[in-house]
Design a protein that fits this description.
single chain, 372 residues, alpha/beta, FAD/NAD(P)-binding domain, D-Amino Acid Oxidase, Chain A, domain 2, 2 domains, 8-stranded mixed β-sheet, 11 helices, 16 strands, 31% helix, 25% strand
């Protein structure tokens, strides 16, 4: 029997497996698909909340702890696995921000390097963006990571650890319980036993936990994106305009995202969304008008009512834990979310106050209708 069984093999599940295994624990991680193939693969990889001043303090606390984690992790994973997650520094330029005063006040409160910049800076920094931009918000420390390659590197990192067992393409049917405690999970053909069970199944967490938590408010939120195979250097950092963004990759590809759609578990792409994303791409980088998108896809975020994740023990069943509901910020918050739950599981002093993320509190807030 393993010490820990992790259900869900996205970035958060894999990071948890890695951290717990490095503490000396025996870990099994299981996923209904291959590891890293759902929202962890489908996102853009910006290592910051979009417009971070618009989020609640609970999100800021996790994001602030995670800031600066990915450059070191990318170096570690490259050394371990020879797979480069392609962390790119360079900053984030946000054009035409209406609530600049709030952004500057937030930056002062949280000691964040965020400044207001004007046209000269904008076009010296990114000369190929559309003409006529006179003012922007600049966050120089924001970077991005190539999330599909991050998933590949994390998976290989797990494979190299002898105390981690990976099980892919196996669907979990139920949490197995005895005397009010989780003792493992049931699959279609077997039972996987463990001392502790951790659910990191993203948008699928609610369905898995429905017999235990009938109204867990985590639901799929579709996001559609597309990518251009563009000349290298057309854009060199994340640029945002009116809620949409472009993200450069090392090989010249440029991601464009993303939509926000409540469509249950439908991952079909639509022509309407494609044309909307193309229009956003052209509005930021007019040179993309000469290119056709290379690929168009959709993924499912684990939406929660206020974007604050559920991190901690399930109140009604012992030895059962949850780390899900990160909404649009799963990759951004993954380092802190991982460490926060691992600290609780291993009896370490938590990196930040765990109380606001505890499932017991979050479920009570949902029942009382106090989530926003």
């Amino acid at each position: 029997m393993n010490d820990f069984l992790i259900v869900g093999g996205g970035v958060i599940g894999m990071m948890m497996a890695r951290t717990l295994a490095d503490s000396g624990a025996d870990v099994t991680i299981v996923d209904k698909n291959a590891l890293g193939q759902e929202s962890s693969w489908a996102g853009g990889g910006i290592v910051s909340p979009l417009y971070p001043w618009r989020y609640r303090p609970e999100i800021t606390a996790l994001a602030n702890w995670s800031q600066g984690f990915y450059p070191k992790l990318a170096q570690q994973l490259l050394a371990e696995t020879e797979i480069d997650p392609e962390y790119r520094a360079g900053g984030m330029l946000m054009l035409r921000v209406e609530d600049e005063a709030e952004a500057l006040a937030w930056a002062a409160r949280h000691q964040q390097p965020l400044t207001q910049v004007e046209a000269d800076f904008i076009y010296q920094t990114e000369p190929n963006i559309a003409a006529g931009k006179v003012q922007a918000i600049w966050m120089p420390e924001v970077g991005s990571i190539r999330n599909p390659r991050l998933g590949q590197a994390l998976k290989r990192s797990l494979e190299l650890r002898p105390n981690i067992r990976i099980i892919e393409h196996v669907e979990i049917k139920a949490i197995r319980q005895m005397d009010g405690q989780a003792i493992g999970v049931d699959t279609a053909n077997s039972v996987l036993s463990a001392g502790q069970v951790i659910v990191t199944a993203g948008a699928w967490s609610s369905a898995l936990l429905a017999p235990i938590i009938p109204n867990l408010p985590i639901a799929p939120v579709k996001g559609q994106m597309l990518v251009y195979n563009a000349p290298k250097g057309l854009v060199n950092r994340v640029v945002m305009l009116d809620g949409r963004y472009v993200i450069p990759r090392n090989d010249g590809r440029i991601l464009v995202g993303s939509t926000l759609e409540y469509a249950d578990f439908d991952k079909q792409t639509t022509e309407e969304a494609k044309q909307s994303l193309i229009a956003s791409a052209h509005a930021i980088l007019p040179a993309l008008k000469d290119l056709e998108p290379e690929y168009h896809w959709a993924g499912l975020r684990p939406g929660s009512p206020d974007g604050i994740p559920f991190i901690g023990a399930i109140p009604s069943v012992g030895k059962l834990h949850l780390n899900a509901g990160h909404f649009r910020n799963g990759l951004v918050l993954a380092p802190a979310a991982t460490q926060l739950l691992c600290d609780q599981l291993l009896g370490n002093t938590p990196i930040i106050d765990p109380a606001p993320y505890q499932p017991a509190l979050r479920l009570k807030q949902a029942e009382q209708g106090v989530m926003i």
